[in-house]
Structures
1.
Amino acid sequence: DRVPFVVAERVPWEKMCDTLNLKFMAEVQTTKGLLKEHYFFLAQKIFNDHSASLEDFQSRSVSWAQFNKEILPGRGFTFWQWFDGVLDLTKRCLKSYWSDRLIIGFISKQYVCKLLSTEPDGTFLLRFSDSEIGGVTIAHVIRGKDG
């Protein structure tokens, strides 16, 4: 129902999720789309809100400025620039790993620490970098003598 070349000022977060998912699957050429957990991470990133629940984000809308004009806090790029970098990296280098669900990808550093806290030494995971466009961060477990 969209008029060509007319961009809505705001769109519901739920519609944004659908669009990001379709873009991701088409660009990467995979049948493995984004999951609910990925949407939660993306919502935290675009809204700069790490205290809200998944349900809290469902009633929010995203502005064009939030999506593609405003620089993310503490970064030198917009949400879209960052997301596009993830698309490019996944398409070029990580497609098979993503398609096999071997990359968690869209996950916060804080949640990674929680996930890995009970895992044995040598356990690792890959996530998309928060601070570098098109980068990957490897988180791993190495326990010191103090535990």
2.
Amino acid sequence: ISNSSFLNKILLGAFADTRKLQLLHFSLFLAIYLAALLTNSLIITAIVCDHRLHSPMYFFLLNLSLLDLGSITVTVPKSMTNSLSNARAISYLGCVAQVFFLVFLLSAEYFLLTVMAYDRFVAICRPLHYETLMNTRACAKMAAAAWVSGFLYAALHTSNTFSLPLCQGNAVNQFFCEIAEIFQLSCSESYLREVGVTCVSLCFFFGCFVFIVVSYVQIFSAVLRIPSEQGRHKAFSICLPHLTAVSLSVSTLTFAYLKPPSISSPHLDLVVAVLYAVVPPTLKPLIYSLWNKALKDAL
């Protein structure tokens, strides 16, 4: 409450100052946003309407598309609106909501990708037990666990971030409210909090990453033992879209938050934020639809 009384609004970073470049930014973000809406909506519709896709793998893919739609909607429309109206402001409560929902959706997505790695592991390495281990109830529980974990993780970080008194101005060097940028506005020593946030995040995400890597080591070991080339090709085609999606998410987030301070600059930070907040939700549907024959046929 004290923060909101001091900061009625927060100024977001702008991609451009001239009107022509602002309109160009609006047009590019509009095209990207519409592409993400179209591709993710098509995947959701195909999975819901085609009974052939009513399986655990596509159930998790449906959840992934919902999370992608949510994450890109949290940041892009507000940035487009600001460019079109030549403004930079977002309300304090709007900033809180943006931080919460972005962390919630991105972390839930990462937890869901971990669950999808387990699904691929069971399908390749434990095929005889697949229907038992990945029954409808188990899949619903695992998907719910990913969503709830993301919610709790976001609540922790949002409350930790906005409990700090903010008095170092009201401008952030990012096109959306980002935790690292909010820390810069704090008038108290936030170093220990930043370290704490980083440690908690690394524990969660490194644990999931290790689980995914171990799962795929066993998956590839099992695939290489398949005698027929056609069988190996089918197994790889099932796993490669998921592995590519994981690589895209991990690489962009890792570079965004662990890049050396020596190469950091406001313009580079804006571009990097686009890479992890805007690009993956647009590319993931294409990755899955291009490499999945059943999904292409349904579409």
3.
Amino acid sequence: RQLFRSPSMPSTVIRLILKRVERDQDIPVKSKRQKSGASPPGGEEPVGGARLLRSKSFSHEEMENMLDNRHWELIGDFSKAYLLQTVEGKHQDLKYISPDTMVAVLTGQFSSLIDSCIIVDCRYPYEYEGGHIKGAVNLPLEQDAEEFLLKKPIMPFDVSKRVIVIFHCEFSSKRGPRMCRFIREKDRACNEYPNLHYPELYVLKGGYQEFFTQYQAHCEPQDYRPMHHKDFKEDLRRFCLKSR
């Protein structure tokens, strides 16, 4: 329970977590041990004719894993719910948004709630130069993303508003999701759990390919250069080596 004594986590969330832990372990509430008589073998104690199991203690690391592995509708630091509507995607541990939701963010429909939206384009530079979402920053390598986002974290000017990060690649199948997980892992490592610099991360479903098909007007230049373009085979080979 010491883990949950954090000012960043609401008391209602704490109670919900503890209730779910008890239910998942299927451990009844333990009554006071009878003063007379020793406990039978196996850690069970007879109380009023019932046999109660000894409750299990969880380490700090075990509790962190239990929290991270659940499909919470709360952002990474458990302080509030996700702002943007999410959709089902390829990776169940990540939060996906549709191109429609991306456009809603780009056109300022969430300006009263979002202080800064960072769109991370994880494609290779020749893909980015051939067409990208307006305002997106090109961070194809892990060291690029770590330096841009975590060396000097982007903080909101208005503390009542949010900073959100949206990752994507060509199809948001591999590079975008991988970068999203990498930033969350590095962010966890440089903060005291459950605090994060960027608790609200999303992945654009369908990536640039699907976004460009629906919303060319929000791309610059208004074009789409695939990763396997015939004129950039050498660039592809070079960046694939760097990514490894």
